[in-house]
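#dry-run=false #mode=assembly
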Amino acid sequence: MASKPLIVAAVATALLVVTIWADASMNRTYYVDVKDGDAWRTVAQGGDVDEYQRAYPFVSDTAVTIRNGTPIDMRLRVDNDYFWAVSATFVVSASGLILAEGAIESPARSAGVTEFSVNSSRVVSTPIYGEKPTPGTGSAQASFEVIIGNTYLYAYFPVEVVS
Amino acid sequence: MSEGGAFHLRNVILFLGVIITTVGLIYFATAFSDLISDWGRVASLVLLTVIYVSLGLHFAQNVDDDALIDRPGWKWVRVATALYILGLVAAFSAVISFLVIDELSRITKVIVTILFGLFLIVYAASRFQGKRKDERAQ
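#status=ok
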């Protein structure tokens, strides 16, 4: 007959295995997508997976087409693998300015999405400091950050400004 | 290992297993921030504390000669003692993990930590006080 402390240790070990398994199988990942024509392009990813707590690696040399002076359509997605629902507020900022804010929700073990737009002139810049991008000339890039609670997503991607 | 040797091979192997488990504990606490949540880390370290202390109690109750070094002045180095110390280390790690949780305010964390610590002190002190009274009565 096992001693009482040994039984307690065995039960605690079983609970430890269950706890680690349940925690490792639960992740919450946020994505920032930019409207590129009639499709969406992911430009930032972050959350429980610290590996991509930075600008999403651009897999294509094709820049995102942006019309000069028009808002850029974006969306924030969340993949919620937790066993409970998630609800959070987010802020989009660039150069210290708050460009957009909103809320995102997702049921347990599901996904959520919310769309927003930002002024392109606030996030698009050229490699030359202080120079505004001219439509059809030179290269430009867009950079901003999306803050959801304690999660920071950084986006940095090439853009082509058209008139 | 000879019978007159200072080390008990069986208990040294046990102690080695405890050390290896401790290294795994440190690795788990530091290298899995992308897979284990803050709350999951706290729960895991609390359960490890329970495991270590329970195993220490088991060895203290059931093993007659578990001294690791059979020399005067070193008899206190036992498997049970080592497991108790590791339980203390795991508990310390659990408290630290609890204090770095961002979701809770600092006020909440400090109140919970101090009150829980005071509860442990008062409970342990009153429990031993009660046992000594019973022993005197007998």
